Amino acid sequence: MDLQLSGKRALVTGSSSGLGETIVKLLAAEGAAVVVHGRDEARTAAVAKSIREDGGDATVAIGDLGTDAGADAVEAAVADGGPVDILVNNVGVYNMTMGWANSSPEDWAEIYNVNVISSVRTIQRFVPGMRERGWGRVIQISSVTGESPAASQPHYAATNAARNNLAASLSRELRHSGVTSNSVAAGGILTPAVQDFLVNLGRQNGWGETWQEIEPNLVNALGPNDVGRIGRRREYADLVAFLASPVAGYINGATLRADGGRYDA
Ligand SMILES: NC(=O)c1ccc[n+]([C@@H]2O[C@H](COP(=O)([O-])OP(=O)(O)OC[C@H]3O[C@@H](n4cnc5c(N)ncnc54)[C@H](OP(=O)(O)O)[C@@H]3O)[C@@H](O)[C@H]2O)c1
């Protein structure tokens, strides 16, 4: 399928690593000009360089989206290359060792700021231009924990409910404008950091020694699904690229779950 992304420009927040890196590389490979964003200058520049080496069009924006000043810096860096047509709000933090007993009110406020208000900052800076031009795509990356929270990471799960909710509200705000707003609620995403954490957890719990041994056991224990494994980054990126494209113009205000058919243990 031709996603018709040539001529579009996309900003993917938090694309210096993890899922965001895979999304920004895929959008570039599909023909979009992309802005790679992060706080770490070297990591962010390395992703942009690799896209350019593969023949893509990539620039860089650095800034902490947990602050207004950081968001202003991102806006200024992005403005140099022209308007943004596609905004993927992927920045997010989580901490798999936190629960009700060890998360302070400050932790709840901080994660809300980084995972939710960061998106408000980018939406308010980049979406008015999309509305004026009559076309745009806004995509929140969230997690299935927004709809199906576990006992662990309650503060993180609450931010995912908020991410889904704000995506739907934004679609109402943008009605009849040509700009759509959706959320992708992801199940587990196999990033290098997640894999390292889970291998250690698996060994502690006697689920195996190698990743191949551990993966099915940890999926059964922590979040069983009908596919029987954790999602790969490219599987989520493919869905985001589709939503970002002109082809997906009739999908709006939705939270799309990609979780292998997750069910409660
Ligand atoms: N991993 C999972 O299993 C999973 C499951 C469901 C949903 N998600 C969601 O998927 C998204 C990406 O997760 P990931 O696992 O790929 O994370 P990751 O590898 O830790 O990457 C996070 C990215 O966000 C950036 N970032 C973090 N805080 C920032 C801030 N205050 N300002 C600007 N940039 C900031 C980081 O940039 P720098 O390092 O350059 O600062 C990095 O590029 C998150 O929103 C997460 O909630 C993840």
From TrEMBL:
<keyword id="KW-0560">Oxidoreductase</keyword>
<protein>
    <submittedName>
        <fullName>NAD(P)-dependent dehydrogenase, short-chain alcohol dehydrogenase family</fullName>
    </submittedName>
</protein>
<comment type="similarity">
    <text>Belongs to the short-chain dehydrogenases/reductases (SDR) family.</text>
</comment>
<dbReference type="InterPro" id="IPR036291">
    <property type="entry name" value="NAD(P)-bd_dom_sf"/>
</dbReference>
<dbReference type="Pfam" id="PF00106">
    <property type="entry name" value="adh_short"/>
</dbReference>
<dbReference type="InterPro" id="IPR050259">
    <property type="entry name" value="SDR"/>
</dbReference>
<dbReference type="GO" id="GO:0016491">
    <property type="term" value="F:oxidoreductase activity"/>
</dbReference>
<dbReference type="InterPro" id="IPR002347">
    <property type="entry name" value="SDR_fam"/>
</dbReference>
